[in-house]
């Protein structure tokens, strides 16, 4: 009879123990997510069917708040403004980011490339509130932008850019381009480093120039990274609040009003909690409707 008995380890018990330990570590994060994300979302959805000032009894109105969003031009205009910001916050930074990243990847190598990436990425570490304040000074009537225009003989076109009804939204879009260009450039540049250099060498042997390499090799092989850039920047445009609130507060008039600004005004200034909740739910649906096709197309390409 052996003096030392062998121990058998039950794999099922080990897996259950590891799973339990994993849930113990994840539980605090899940609890915080439920309290600060899921519960407010459910309450927002419920409030959207009521007329409520935030105090006292609420009155059931059904879908009336949602109908109001489409009937009131100022509310519907915020959604249109958000789509205009998609052009400035998303399409332009991604397009410019592709070109800038390609130039850096082709020309600026080593330490020069690292410096270029650092400079371009700096706007990402600056708080959006601070960026809005700084650009507010730059784009003011006596600001640096107008001073430069006067110095080069273009004083006739100077104006208070953020206070002009026609130019306020493009001016806010310029701030978004400045903030998001570095993010897109660095992400796309990282993707370019994964492309096999032999593909470029083969293209050059066949006589392809820089533009042909860019169209035929770089862009197709970076579709996944482009999808990530589009996802992040489109969400930033549709859910914009910080930059717009600090720089223009939605003005002049409603020229730069976006859903985030209007939700804040309705809920905390006009105390129309139900209408603000309905606009918030519609904003969430809008983000999902725009982002899901981007994700789906990206996934199809990767497969």
Q: Spell out the helices and strands N to C.
A: HEEHHHHHHHHHHHH
* N-to-C CA distance: 60 Å
> Considering the protein shown, what is the CATH homologous superfamily of the largest domain?
MetI-like
Number of domains: 2
- So what's the overall shape? globular
Specify the structural class: mainly alpha
| Mean pLDDT level | 88
How is the main sheet built?
A: 2 strands, antiparallel
Description:
By secondary structure, the chain is an all-alpha fold. It has 2 domains: 11-47, no CATH class; 67-302, Orthogonal Bundle (MetI-like fold). It contains 13 helices and 2 strands; from the N terminus they run αββαααααααααααα. It has helices spanning 11-47, 64-71, 73-106, 111-125, 128-138, 144-151, 168-192, 197-205, 210-221, 223-238, 242-247, 259-269, 273-302, and strands spanning 50-51, 59-60. Strands 1-2 form a two-stranded antiparallel sheet.
Topology:
Elements: H1 11-47, E1 50-51, E2 59-60, H2 64-71, H3 73-106, H4 111-125, H5 128-138, H6 144-151, H7 168-192, H8 197-205, H9 210-221, H10 223-238, H11 242-247, H12 259-269, H13 273-302
Brief overview, please?
73% of the residues lie in helices and 1% in strands. It is mostly helical.
Record keyword descriptors for this entry:
MetI-like fold; 303 residues; 13 helices; globular; 2 domains
């Amino acid at each position: 009879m052996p003096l030392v008995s062998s121990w058998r380890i039950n794999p099922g018990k080990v897996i259950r123990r590891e799973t339990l330990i994993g849930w113990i570590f994840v539980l605090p994060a899940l609890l915080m997510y439920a309290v600060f994300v899921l519960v407010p979302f459910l309450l927002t959805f419920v409030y959207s069917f009521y007329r409520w000032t935030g105090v006292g009894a609420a009155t059931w109105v059904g879908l009336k708040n949602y109908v109001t969003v489409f009937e009131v031009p100022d509310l519907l205009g915020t959604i249109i403004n958000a789509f205009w910001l998609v052009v400035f916050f998303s399409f332009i930074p991604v397009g410019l980011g592709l070109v800038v990243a390609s130039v850096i990847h082709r020309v600026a190598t080593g330490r020069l490339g690292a410096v270029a990436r650092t400079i371009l990425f700096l706007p990402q570490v600056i708080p959006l509130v601070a960026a809005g304040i700084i650009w507010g000074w730059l784009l003011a009537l006596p600001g640096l932008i107008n001073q430069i225009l006067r110095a080069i003989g273009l004083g006739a076109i100077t104006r208070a850019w953020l206070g002009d009804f026609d130019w306020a939204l493009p001016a806010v879009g310029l701030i978004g381009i400045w903030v998001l260009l570095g993010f897109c450039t660095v992400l796309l540049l990282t993707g370019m480093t994964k492309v096999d250099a032999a593909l470029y060498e083969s293209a050059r042997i066949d006589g392809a120039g820089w533009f042909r390499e860019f169209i035929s090799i770089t862009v197709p092989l970076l579709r996944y990274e482009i999808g990530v850039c589009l996802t992040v920047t489109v969400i930033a445009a549709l859910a914009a609040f910080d930059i717009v609130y600090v720089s223009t507060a939605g003005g002049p008039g409603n020229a730069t009003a976006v859903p985030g600004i209007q939700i804040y005004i309705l809920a905390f200034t006009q105390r129309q909690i139900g209408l603000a909740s309905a606009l918030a739910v519609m904003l969430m649906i809008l983000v999902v409707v725009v982002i899901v096709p981007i994700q789906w197309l990206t996934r199809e390409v990767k497969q």
